[in-house]
Design a protein that fits this description.
alpha/beta, 5-stranded mixed sheet, 127 residues, 5 helices
């Protein structure tokens, strides 16, 4: 709650220097203004500190200012996402969720997805 406050948010586990994640972040940069208008937080998590150290947000264009970055220590959040969403491939990244602070998930995407930014916006407009 300290990061997201009450309400809807986007959370993701990123695979740094992996094409599916790179593509997803470029798609998100393409809808930057729309995501900022929505005004809800995005929490982008890295599997470990080494991955975080390799990340350069400038590689993807201008990302939304609503993003908070963090590290998923011990892969706890990733494990929880995989179990709760019954994802078949636990280590396929990135994983993106739109959820709320009551743990209701309305969208999940894993691995390579074309047009992720627009998909996120379609769901957001229905909230």
């Amino acid at each position: 709650l300290a990061t997201t406050a009450r309400g809807d948010y986007i959370v993701a586990i990123l695979g740094v220097r992996q094409e599916p994640t790179n593509h997803a972040l470029r798609d998100i940069a393409a809808v930057k203004e729309k995501l900022e208008e929505w005004g809800r937080p995005m929490v982008l998590l890295f599997p470990d500190e080494a991955s975080y150290g390799k990340f350069d947000a400038h590689e993807f264009g201008e990302l939304p200012g609503t993003i908070s970055y963090g590290i998923d220590r011990s892969h706890a959040i990733q494990k929880e996402m995989v179990a709760a969403m019954k994802l078949a491939h636990a280590n396929t990244l990135p994983i993106f969720l739109i959820a709320d602070t009551f743990n209701r998930v309305v969208f999940v995407s894993q691995g390579y997805t074309i047009g992720l930014g627009e998909q996120l916006m379609q769901i957001i407009h229905k909230l």
